[in-house]
Amino acid sequence: MQLNIFRDRHERKASTGPKPSGCVLSGTDWPEAMDEQRIFLLQDDVRHGKPLDRTAMLDALEGLQRITPSSPLWEAYRGLQDAAIYERWRKNLLGDT
């Protein structure tokens, strides 16, 4: 068997478009990134006069509570694993008193 290690040398050309820069947080890889985005969008809806979807907000907040130390968002949301901090966030985001 003979292998040609230079087979693709001329078949594939480098992209001429702009190279991607920086890191992109994907909701596929990091579900908590989608939860964070959902909270931002729900808050934006409320600012524009729409009623708050409490169920969606609670689901997103619970998703952030399940964050792990390997997540790039760990530093921002690790405190949610403390029950008192979680309750404060929940009351603040849902507008409960």
In short:
This protein is mostly helical.
Explained architecture:
The protein is mainly alpha-helical. The chain has a domain at 31-94. It contains four helices and no strands. Helix 2 (54-65) packs antiparallel against helix 4 (83-94). The protein is elongated and about 70 Å long. The mean pLDDT is 84.
How is this fold's topology laid out?
Layout: H1 31-47, H2 54-65, H3 74-77, H4 83-94
User: How many E-type strands?
Assistant: 0
Task: Tell me the structural class.
Answer: mainly alpha
Q: Which percent range describes the beta-strand content?
A: under 5%
Whole-angstrom Rg:
21 Å
Q: Total number of helical segments?
A: 4
Main pleated-sheet profile: none
Poorly predicted ranges: none
Helical content class: 40-55%
Tell me the overall shape.
Answer: elongated
What key phrases describe this protein's structure?
97 residues; mainly alpha
